[in-house]
Structures are given as structure tokens and as C-alpha cells.
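C-alpha cells incoming
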């Protein structure tokens, strides 16, 4: 670490940022500037050496700063969660437990606890949450005779998990519509093999639940694939609502820039009241020098004005098309809180805009950030119709997980319009319930209709789907499906079912298909299913769902203790968040055992 800066005077957050920028491969001077200066504050032209001199050359006669304790620079990653008293109140409704959907105006969200009067509230209305989410209606069991197939859009998105963890960090309320179970499941890493050949590898596992039902785990793993050249267009929202998000946004931009290699093309567009072209078709020749040039452009940006996002999107696609690289990675990456309040602002208009633009062979991925005024519903539309990935970045750890460690799956699209269809054998499965995917369900005919869009997979991306199955007993009477003159005739197969996957190559218009038979004999499951079940129970608990019982919480905690070291290492500190949610759920239900320690709560 550079010894010309007195790091004793800097905050732990600033020191953590410095360590992070060093991990990206930036030289010491650049890392120091990025950790201590943030875009939106600098005026006019800036240079990293010039800003560094401001840091390292104190004013004349400036007194020597007093030593500051807790100046550890171990390089360890900061916790995703703020320290919080272990008061057992995480799941109390006045802190951040699930509450009924409040409609257009969400529950007030304050980081602290203090008393306010009506006059104060009149002047502080901006503190109220105005976040928007698509409505979620939980699905119940469906008889396998009446509903022969279950069809849905596959997804590699993790945005919902990022939103939920940010709400917990900030002690804000969680509404049911924030919790997309499938995205919470995808947030975690599973021990799955990559495809030996072909685009995907399908796998399944089965376990008996305490209720006697079965839990079916389906995993779709994409192959790893990178393209030699990149054409990246970074579209950055710099409207006034983004001012408080500039620290993590700067880290996100810097991480993307660190992935640029010689020969790559980079363009930089910002938008607020108007869109501005910061860099157009900039070709990287000297990686160290040119990355620094881009970052200096970033540090000189100001934040102000309202949000004309549609204008910025138009400009970004225009630039991306101009510098299109055949057989390359052509990607628009949008960073925003989704608060589009000028230009095209409604979801229908945004859908039409993106549907028209993606015909140019460009893919749009979204990095969402913010709390209190976050427009998740619009960002879902943009990423889904732009054939891109949607993730949330609300702190440094989010940036590391979603961009630094998973950049290929964010930017290198290997397939689009990925759909799944599962058919259960009615002689084995009486009824089934797909856990999550409520807003991604499709009709039976949509599966082979190539005009019905779905979502993409990035390089090495995965999607997890869970079903709860009610099994048919030996004494279960035959069903006639409600018809007077027609009966269901089955084949006598002992297979539990079949899952089919359908997808298109990134620039293709027609789909390919593959399938996997799901065996019904015995139980066969690994830590993958255990982890997925634990995550599912946590997600349902955050929804305050009636589907979760005291026994489910206890079982998930037992499964957590059984998890092997390999899957724990794959998920590092992320897996501890599940335990904290479960433990607090158990306390809420008053079934915590006396042997469990009163350790510090990490949210």
C-alpha cells in the first residue's frame, strides 16, 4: 500500500475500496484515487496523477493527524451486512419482516429509529419508499392429470436476492413482490459439472420431505464460452436520484473497465436530462494507459437532472451498432435505479423500444442499484426483452460477486430464449407445485412457439428450479379428468417425468431442444439439493408465506449444519446469510433450542 497516504485517517470503507481496486489489477496510484475520489464531485477535466497529488500533498502547516485505531489492511472483503444488535427483532414487522403489499406507495424506510411528527413528514416525503415491483401471486398444487405440463422461462438472474439483502442491511420492510424465489436460488453456487459437449447439462435430484411429499431439484448448467473481442457500450444513469449510489457505481464501472483487453472497443454514454457521449468506439491498445484514460473520463462526470432513460438507450444502441464486431461480444450494460421519469417511461413503451433495438444483434444487461425509489419492474422488462442479464449492486461485495467474479456470464451470451417444460407421470406424481417462477410461467403451446421470448444464459450461467411433488399412493383412485366420455390412459412407465429444454443460439431465430428423463426409483440427492432447499425456505419465510412451517425451519437449519466444506467454500460468506435468516425465523416462531449460541447477528 502506498505509504504517501496516511491511511490511519481514512475510513474502513475507503481502505476496503483500495484493497478491492488493487485486486482488479490497478496500480497503486489509480487504486488510491478511486478509493478516495468519487465521480459526481469533481469539476472539469481531471487526471489521476493530479488527484493523487491532492491526496498526498497536505496543506502547509497542517497538523500531524492523530493515530486512528482499527486500521487493519488485511485485504479481507467487507461484510455485506452492517453490525446490528442481536435483539431478535429482524423478523418483527416494525423492522424488516414481510408485510402485505402496500400498493403504489411502499412502507416508509428509515435507516434509524426516531420519532417524527406530521410537520416533519411533510418536509421529508422524499424519504418514503416509492419502489415498484411486479405483483406476485403464489401458485398452489396442480393435479398432474389436469395439468399435463409445467412450462416456464428459464433465468440466470439474481436481482431479487440483491434487493432482499439490501433491504435487510438497511432495516427496511420486505414485501412479497420483492421475493422472486428462482432468483434467490440462483444467487448461490452449486457443485455442478460443466457440459462435456453441447450447450447445456441437465441434472436432477430427489428428496423426501417431512410432509411425505418429494422435493425435485432441477439444475441447468451452461457451458463456458468467451469471445476473442468485446464491443462494450456502458450506459450510465447520472440523474439526481443516482447521487447516493455513486460509490458502488464507480466500483462497477471500474470493474468492467478492468476486464478490457487489447483490441476491445469501449464506448461510454451517460444520460440525465440529456444523453452525452463520453467515449465513442475507443479501441484499447495499451491496457494500463487506456483503462486509466477511461477512468479519468468517469471521475469528471457530474450528477444532476431528471432521467431521460429512453434517449440514453437509443444512443447506446446506435453506438453499439456502429462498432459492431461480428462473432464478438456486443453488449450494452446499463447501470441505473430504473427511475425513468422523462421520455418513454411506461413498461409497455420500454418493451417495444428494446424489442426493436435488439434486432441489431446487441444484448442489453442491467445492473440495478438503489433503495427507496428503485424501479425493479422496469429493469426486469429491459433485461428480459434485451436478451440480457439482470443483477443488483448495492455495495462493494455485490460488485465483486456479480461483476468481477462472474463477468463472463454477465456479458458473454451463449444462448437466448431458454425455456423449460416438465411433464410428470400421473401414475407416480399426483400433483405438483413449481416453487417460484410465478411471473415466468408460460402456456403449454408457448414452449415450441419460437415467437414467444424467454431469457438468455451467459457463459457458465446456471438456473435452479424446484418442485414440490405429491406422490400417488397405491390406494389413490383413478382420475377421469372431469370428462363423461373420455378417460386418461397412461403408459405404465415408472419414470417420474421428463424435463425438456429449448433454446436459440445467440443470433439464431429457430430453437434447438434437449431433454432429460427424471427417474423415480429411490432418493438421490447431494449438498446441491440441501442448499437449494435451505434457500427456498428462507425466500418463502421472507414472503411470510403460509407454505412454511416451524418444522420446515428446523429441517433447513439441520440441513445447513450437514452441508459439506466444498459447497460452503463455493459460497463463502453468502451461505452465512441463509443461517441468519433461518435462525431469526426460528426465534420468531419460538422454537430456538437452548444450545444455540447468542452470537452476533450479521445483518
Amino acid at each position: 500500500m502506498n505509504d504517501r497516504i496516511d491511511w490511519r485517517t481514512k475510513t474502513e470503507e475507503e481502505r476496503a475500496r483500495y484493497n478491492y481496486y488493487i485486486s482488479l489489477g490497478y496500480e497503486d496510484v489509480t487504486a488510491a484515487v478511486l478509493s478516495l475520489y468519487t465521480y459526481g464531485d469533481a469539476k472539469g477535466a481531471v487526471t489521476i496523477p493530479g488527484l493523487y497529488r491532492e491526496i498526498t500533498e497536505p496543506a502547509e502547516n497542517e497538523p500531524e493527524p492523530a493515530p486512528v485505531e482499527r486500521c487493519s489492511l488485511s485485504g479481507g472483503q467487507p461484510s455485506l451486512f452492517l453490525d446490528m444488535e442481536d435483539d431478535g427483532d429482524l423478523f418483527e414487522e416494525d423492522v424488516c419482516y414481510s408485510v402485505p403489499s402496500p400498493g403504489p406507495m411502499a412502507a416508509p424506510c428509515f435507516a434509524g429509529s426516531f420519532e417524527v411528527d406530521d410537520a416533519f413528514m411533510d418536509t421529508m416525503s422524499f424519504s418514503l419508499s416509492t419502489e415498484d415491483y411486479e405483483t406476485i401471486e403464489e401458485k398452489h398444487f396442480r393435479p398432474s392429470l389436469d395439468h399435463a405440463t409445467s412450462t416456464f422461462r428459464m433465468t440466470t438472474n439474481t436481482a431479487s436476492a440483491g434487493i432482499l439483502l439490501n433491504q435487510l442491511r438497511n432495516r427496511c420492510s420486505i414485501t412479497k413482490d420483492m421475493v422472486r424465489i428462482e432468483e434467490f436460488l440462483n444467487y448461490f453456487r452449486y457443485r455442478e459439472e460443466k457440459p462435456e459437449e453441447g450447450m447445456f447439462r441437465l441434472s436432477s435430484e430427489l428428496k423426501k420431505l417431512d410432509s411425505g411429499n418429494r422435493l425435485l431439484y432441477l439444475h441447468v448448467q451452461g457451458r463456458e464460452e468467451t469471445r476473442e473481442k468485446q464491443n462494450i457500450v456502458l450506459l450510465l444513469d447520472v440523474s439526481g436520484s443516482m447521487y447516493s449510489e455513486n460509490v458502488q457505481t464507480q466500483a462497477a464501472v471500474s470493474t468492467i473497465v478492468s476486464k478490457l483487453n487489447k483490441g476491445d472497443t469501449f464506448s461510454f454514454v451517460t444520460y440525465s436530462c440529456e444523453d452525452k457521449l463520453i467515449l465513442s468506439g475507443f479501441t484499447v491498445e495499451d491496457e494500463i494507459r487506456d483503462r486509466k484514460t477511461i477512468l479519468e473520463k468517469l471521475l469528471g462526470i457530474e450528477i444532476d437532472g431528471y432521467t431521460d432513460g429512453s434517449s440514453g438507450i437509443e444512443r447506446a444502441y446506435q453506438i453499439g451498432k456502429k462498432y459492431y464486431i461480428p462473432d464478438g461480444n456486443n453488449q450494452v450494460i446499463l447501470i441505473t435505479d430504473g427511475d425513468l421519469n422523462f421520455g418513454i417511461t411506461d413498461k409497455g413503451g420500454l418493451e417495444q423500444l428494446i424489442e426493436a433495438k435488439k434486432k441489431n444483434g446487441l444484448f442489453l444487461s442491467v445492473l440495478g442499484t438503489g433503495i427507496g425509489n428503485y424501479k425493479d419492474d422496469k429493469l426486469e422488462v429491459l433485461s428480459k426483452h434485451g436478451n440480457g442479464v439482470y443483477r443488483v449492486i448495492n455495495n462493494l461485495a455485490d460488485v465483486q460477486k456479480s461483476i468481477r467474479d462472474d463477468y463472463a456470464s454477465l456479458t458473454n451470451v451463449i444462448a437466448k430464449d431458454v425455456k423449460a417444460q416438465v411433464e410428470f407421470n400421473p401414475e407416480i406424481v399426483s400433483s405438483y407445485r413449481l416453487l417460484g417462477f410465478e411471473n415466468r410461467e408460460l402456456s403449454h403451446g408457448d414452449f415450441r412457439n419460437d415467437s414467444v421470448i424467454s431469457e438468455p444464459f451467459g457463459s457458465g450461467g446456471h438456473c435452479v428450479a424446484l418442485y414440490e411433488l405429491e406422490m400417488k399412493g397405491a390406494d389413490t383412485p383413478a382420475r377421469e379428468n372431469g370428462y363423461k366420455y373420455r378417460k386418461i390412459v397412461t403408459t405404465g412407465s415408472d419414470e417420474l417425468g421428463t424435463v425438456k429444454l429449448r433454446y436459440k443460439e445467440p443470433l439464431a431465430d429457430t430453437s434447438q431442444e434437449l431433454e432429460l428423463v427424471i427417474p423415480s426409483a429411490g432418493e438421490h440427492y447431494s449438498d446441491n439439493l440441501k442448499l437449494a432447499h435451505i434457500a427456498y425456505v428462507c425466500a418463502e419465510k421472507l414472503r411470510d408465506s403460509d407454505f412454511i412451517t416451524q418444522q420446515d425451519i428446523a429441517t433447513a437449519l439441520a440441513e445447513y449444519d450437514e452441508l459439506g466444506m466444498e459447497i460452503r467454500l463455493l459460497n463463502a460468506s453468502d451461505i452465512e446469510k441463509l443461517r441468519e435468516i433461518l435462525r431469526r425465523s426460528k426465534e420468531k416462531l419460538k422454537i430456538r433450542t437452548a444450545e444455540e449460541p447468542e452470537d452476533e447477528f450479521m445483518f
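note: Residues 230-413 form a domain with the Rossmann fold fold (CATH 3.40.50.410).
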